[in-house]
Specification:
CATH architecture of the largest domain in chain B: Orthogonal Bundle
Number of domains of chain B: 2
Order of helices and strands of chain B: HHHHHHHH
Distance between the termini of chain A: 108 Å
Structural class of chain B: mainly alpha
Number of domains of chain A: 1
CATH topology of the largest domain in chain B: Arc Repressor Mutant, subunit A
Distance between the termini of chain B: 50 Å
Number of strands of chain A: 0
CATH class of the largest domain in chain B: Mainly Alpha
Oligomer: heterodimer
Strand content of chain A: under 5%
Radius of gyration of chain A: 41 Å
Number of helices of chain B: 8
Largest interface: A-B, 25 and 41 residues
Radius of gyration of chain B: 17 Å
Strand content of chain B: under 5%
Mean pLDDT of chain B: 88
Structural class of chain A: mainly alpha
Number of strands of chain B: 0
Low-confidence stretches of chain B: none
Largest sheet of chain B: none
Chain lengths: 117, 172
């Protein structure tokens, strides 16, 4: 710390007499004055924090619910009475034909023949 | 006194009276400009007042105050930076401010010493200021800057060497 003895701790700039004290008083007064403003901002910040938390929770709940709902819809279709009825009225061979078909077995669509019919 | 809500105002005023001047000069040495120092002091006071209730006594009160003052000074410097400009590249503009605000001749030892200081990166300059002007132990500087003691010792010695080199160039 004594490497610069010649210069010491002198600064090339200074302040007028009493300036720093008056600045300190001014800063203290403004800090005390902003207290109510700070309190109001803290309340607003808290409201924003909680409301965004609730909104996020609601969004997550909605997404989970809609996913659950979609899965339920699939299950409902699978279990639907009418589909069961249709399938049960078909023979095993017909069900197999409906379920497993080969694209090559399906004849190409002939527009001329369709128009003559 | 600072813990009690009824006496906090008084405690805060006493605290600022006790440490205000040294904090002002600490900020001034970092930001150089009179106006910037005033801005940083205002923000620092507000932060101290708002944070004093939550002061956890993990470090000395003066350390906590210096940390706030340092952060505010750096915040002011960052505001003075252009887009994508680092505060370490502000040396030239800070030197201009120093020359404008100095009451001494530009070739005086004090001005040259400050100019040499302003060539240093901000963190190195802060470490040097706290050690040289405030005579703080490295452990306290570490708590203020969030750096470890070894890094600070290196920073200080690098700073001393660079300042000496700068002063030698100007044949001081």
């Amino acid at each position: 710390m004594n490497d610069f003895n010649q210069i010491g701790k002198r600064m090339p700039f200074s302040e007028s007499e009493g300036y720093v004290d008056s600045l300190i008083d001014k800063c203290a007064a403004s800090a005390l004055a902003q207290r109510s403003d700070h309190h109001r901002r803290a309340v607003i910040r808290r409201i924003c924090f909680y409301s965004s938390g609730i909104a996020a929770a609601l969004l997550v709940a909605f997404l989970l619910f809609s996913r659950f709902q979609t899965q339920n819809d699939y299950k409902r279709i699978e279990k639907s009475q009418s589909l069961n009825e249709v399938l049960s009225s078909l023979s095993d061979k017909q069900v197999q034909d409906v379920t497993y078909y080969n694209l090559d077995d399906i004849p190409d669509y002939d527009a001329d023949q369709a128009s003559s019919n | 006194m600072l813990r009690s809500p009824s006496q906090r105002d008084l405690g805060f005023s006493i605290l600022l009276k006790k440490y205000g001047e040294q904090l002002y000069w600490h900020i001034r040495r970092i930001v150089v400009s009179h106006d910037d120092a005033e801005d940083a002091m205002q923000e620092m006071s507000i932060n101290i007042f708002n944070g004093i209730g939550g002061f956890k006594e993990k470090c000395a009160l003066s350390t906590w105050l210096y940390r706030i003052a340092t952060n505010e000074a750096l915040h002011v410097l960052r505001q003075r930076c252009n887009f994508l400009q680092s505060i370490d590249s502000l040396g030239e503009s800070l030197t201009e401010k120093l020359e404008a605000e100095s009451h001494l001749d530009a070739k005086s030892a004090e001005v040259l010493f400050q100019k040499a200081l302003l060539q240093l990166p901000a963190q190195q300059r802060i470490a040097f200021n706290l050690r040289y002007y405030n005579e703080m132990p490295y452990e306290q500087i570490a708590q203020i800057t969030g750096k470890n003691v070894g890094t600070l010792k290196t920073n200080y010695h690098f700073a001393v060497e660079r300042i000496k080199k700068y002063l030698n160039e100007f044949a001081l």
